[in-house]
Amino acid sequence: MGHFDAGGAMTAVLKFQNLTLGYDRHPAVHHLQAEIAEGSLTAIVGPNGAGKSTLLKGVTGTLTPLEGRITFGALGRDDIAYLPQQSDIDRSFPISVLDLVAMGLWREIGPFGRLHPQQRGRVADAISAVGLTGFEGRPIGSLSGGQMQRALFARVLLQDAQLVLLDEPFTAIDVRTTADLLGVVRRWHREGRTVLAVLHDFEAVREYFPDTMMLARELVAHGPTADVLTAENQFRARSMAEAPDTDAEICVRNAA
Ligand SMILES: Nc1ncnc2c1ncn2[C@@H]1O[C@H](COP(=O)(O)OP(=O)(O)OP(=O)(O)O)[C@@H](O)[C@H]1O
């Protein structure tokens, strides 16, 4: 479960090698070189449009690199649980909280499988762990934003993945719900899972996330949170993000 092997070397769960990701050949993340240690709890921060969500989409495989690559240590890509931004989720889909959460067992039961009693118990445990007992039959469209986020966390809990990706999990979520869900994140960390979370609240990052990666299209800094969240790095990130994007087409830097 540790970050380091017997020789003290870091065990990487994920490696970004000269990674460029983008849309229609317009890069959003440039030439990223970084490694994510097994069991680490890392916040991804940076200004709007910095490429944070794009990076997570690269890890899930939704986006194929324009250049460079992403490699997975001992893990396969199917050992990832991903919580997208709330805005990317279709709440009009007519399913209950129970069905949404039970989708976390999809790998075990397949698309049309029935839940065994033992699996029903695990679904109930996950719903209880996020404080949603009593909401099982509610259509997801009737939930508040915070209740929906609790349900999505329960689904991730059931997925039992070694790598957990969270995209702005606490945006527009109240203090109490955030505290409860941060408890779930700490549990994953204690269990030795690797967690990457896109966050905007630096106070929460300082308090709960030992490591931070700061992006502004390019990597600004990556390492222990106190070393990364400096005023100087924040200033650099802002000026990099505000600079006009001269990469109208695929970036050719380092290509020569
Ligand atoms: N589907 C898309 N098609 C085209 N461009 C996109 C798409 N999604 C994102 N982009 C662009 O890629 C860049 C990075 O976007 P991304 O969503 O990764 O930023 P972010 O750091 O997550 O920002 P925020 O903090 O605002 O959520 C932005 O310039 C954005 O406009």
From TrEMBL:
UniProt KW keywords: ATP-binding, Ion transport, Nucleotide-binding, Transport, Zinc, Zinc transport
Domain ABC transporter, residue spans: 14-242
InterPro entries xrefs: AAA+_ATPase, ABC_transporter-like_ATP-bd, ABC_transporter-like_CS, AztA-like, Metal_Ion_Import_ABC, P-loop_NTPase
GO biological process, one term: zinc ion transport
Record-level Gene Ontology MF annotations: ATP binding; ATP hydrolysis activity
Nucleotide-binding is among the record's keywords: yes
Domain of life: Bacteria
Pfam families xref list: ABC_tran
Transmembrane intervals: none
Statement: the UniProt record of this protein carries the keyword Cell inner membrane: no
Family under the similarity heading: Belongs to the ABC transporter superfamily.
Protein name: ABC transporter ATP-binding protein
